[in-house]
Amino acid sequence: VAEDRIEGLLGAYLLGELSVEEEERELERHLEVCAECRRELERVRQTHNLLRQLAANEPPAELKEQVLAQVRGETPAHSISRWWFWASAAAALLLVAVLSVGLFREITGDPSFVVPLAATELAPEAGGEARIEEVGENFQVELEVWGMPELKEDEYYEMWYYAEDGGRISCGTFQVGPEGRATVNLTAPASARDYPEIEITRELDDGNPEASDEGILEGELRST
Amino acid sequence: VARALSRIPEEHREVVTLAYFEGLSQREISRRTGVPLGTIKSRTTAALKRLHRSLLNPAAEETHRG
């Protein structure tokens, strides 16, 4: 229960809002010893960064108004459709912004690089590619895979930054579609630069946060 | 992101919108909504977790090629 309470502080921590110094120290102490909370922090951080980006691009005025009205206890007419309209508009703007940044980087030759992912003996027909780009403090990873083995209902794939000594960082999880294909966007923290390899593992949703030993794809990052 | 936001519970969407789009502090959100500060903090974390899940699963569904 104490752990639930500490874990519940992660969002406020990312927002820089653990006002009580003690709370922050307590959380950081806990993060040092709890691998699951560290992983949870990385997951929450991905969403946090995405929302920050979205909000920085174009705060949808109507969306704010909508929520504020709900807070005041009003329920304006057409709430759903208006909300959808502005939410879609915001998503479209974000897409344009992301594409523009990509184009700009291509023109200016900003370093992004592609890491080919090779199959292991567990699934020799699988393959993939990770396109990695440094965005601010983090790494944006566009992962494309194909020929991945079909997953059972309680399984998923997970991408890791990985070091020979066994240390690893999770970049996120995903499912695959027909022909074992998927294209997903993941985020890795700045600390990922210390890890020389990428691995995609097949994981069972059993609450165990550690990596399984079922590595399906592997790739090597060249140091730049 | 918008679609993912629409799928999470109302109370989660509210804290996310107020914190990220309205730029309110956790304390201000607590005051505005009349919900205790501790609850707002844990709700923010819960909302980010829900959003993350909501973003991941459909992302894989929608981007597969076939």
Characterization of this structure:
The complex is a heterodimer of chains A (224) and B (66). Chain A is 39% helix and 28% strand. Chain A is globular and about 60 Å long. Chain A is α+β, with helices and mostly antiparallel strands and 224 residues long. Chain A is built from six helices and eight strands. The mean pLDDT of chain A is 80. Chain B is mostly helical and 66 residues long. Chain B starts with a helix and ends with a helix. At the A-B interface, helix 2, helix 4, helix 5, helix 6 and strand 5 of A face helix 1, helix 2, helix 3 and helix 4 of B.
List keywords for this structure.
A: 8-stranded antiparallel sheet, 6 helices, globular, B: 66 residues, mainly alpha, 80% helix, 0% strand, elongated
SSE layout:
The complex is a heterodimer of chains A (224) and B (66).
Chain A: H1 2-7, H2 10-14, H3 21-33, H4 35-57, H5 61-71, H6 79-108, E1 112-119, E2 127-135, E3 138-146, E4 155-162, E5 168-174, E6 182-188, E7 197-204, E8 215-220
Antiparallel strand pairs in A: 1-2, 1-8, 2-3, 3-6, 4-5, 4-7, 7-8
Helix pairs in contact in A: 5-6
Chain B: H1 2-7, H2 10-21, H3 26-33, H4 37-63
Helix pairs in contact in B: 2-4, 3-4
Strand content of chain A: 25-35%
**Strand tally of chain A, please?**
8
Q: Main beta sheet of chain B, described? A: none
**How would the global form of chain A be characterised?**
globular
Q: Identify the quaternary structure here.
A: heterodimer
Mean pLDDT value of chain A? 80
User: End-to-end span of chain A in angstroms?
Assistant: 44 Å
Strand-and-helix sequence of chain B, N→C?
A: HHHH
| Sheet having the most strands of chain A | 8 strands, antiparallel
Uncertain stretches of chain A: none
Radius of gyration of chain B from CA coordinates: 14 Å
Structural class of chain B: mainly alpha
Which residues of chain B sit in consecutive blocks of at least 5 with pLDDT less than 50?
59-66
Mean pLDDT of chain B: 82
For the secondary structure, the number of strands of chain B is 0
Proportion of beta-strand residues of chain B: under 5%
**Total helical elements of chain B:** 4
Tell me the helix content of chain B.
over 70%
Structural class label of chain A: alpha+beta
Give the CA-CA distance, first to last residue of chain B: 23 Å
Spatial shape of chain B: elongated
